[in-house]
Design brief:
about 140 residues, two-stranded antiparallel sheet, 6 helices, about 45% helix, transferase, kinase, HipA-like C-terminal domain-containing protein, HipA-like_C
């Protein structure tokens, strides 16, 4: 699997990067892995360890552990688009992948209610979402 294909997969193949920067602070190299099938073909593993873990005073959860565009916070739509371009993903597909993730995160209240998350936690968690990643 080429580095470019890995990069495209991280945006387009399940939206791992848009998901991480939208809200999952617990992003580190042990949370991204690959699987090889019997024919020797590699692919990105399904997402795992994506539970909410943000603590503004915690050294591991205050900032992202992995960087994007040289930053560990304050990501922009442009940062994602530069990454997408660098790995050869067309801008319309990158925008679509980003929009899918942001739209899913926007349904947080519905997901939280179905999961039985306490109302006080729903609001506290929602305030930390980065919903500014949509194309402007």
């Amino acid at each position: 699997m080429s580095v470019l294909k890995i990069g495209r997969t991280l945006i387009d193949g399940g939206g791992k990067i848009p998901w991480q920067v939208t809200r999952n602070q617990d992003d580190h190299v042990k949370n991204i892995s690959f699987l090889m099938d019997r024919s020797g073909t590699w692919r990105l593993s399904p997402a795992y360890d994506v539970a909410y873990s943000y603590n503004p005073s915690g050294s591991w959860t205050r900032d992202h552990q992995m960087s994007l565009a040289g930053k560990r916070n304050d990501f922009t739509h442009g940062d994602l688009m530069v990454f997408a371009s660098n790995v050869g993903l067309k801008s319309n597909r990158a925008n679509q992948a980003i929009e899918e993730i942001v739209s899913a995160v926007a349904q947080w209240h519905e997901f939280a209610e179905r999961a039985g998350v306490a109302h006080s936690d729903v609001s506290r968690i929602e305030r930390t979402f980065r919903m500014n990643l949509r194309d402007k």
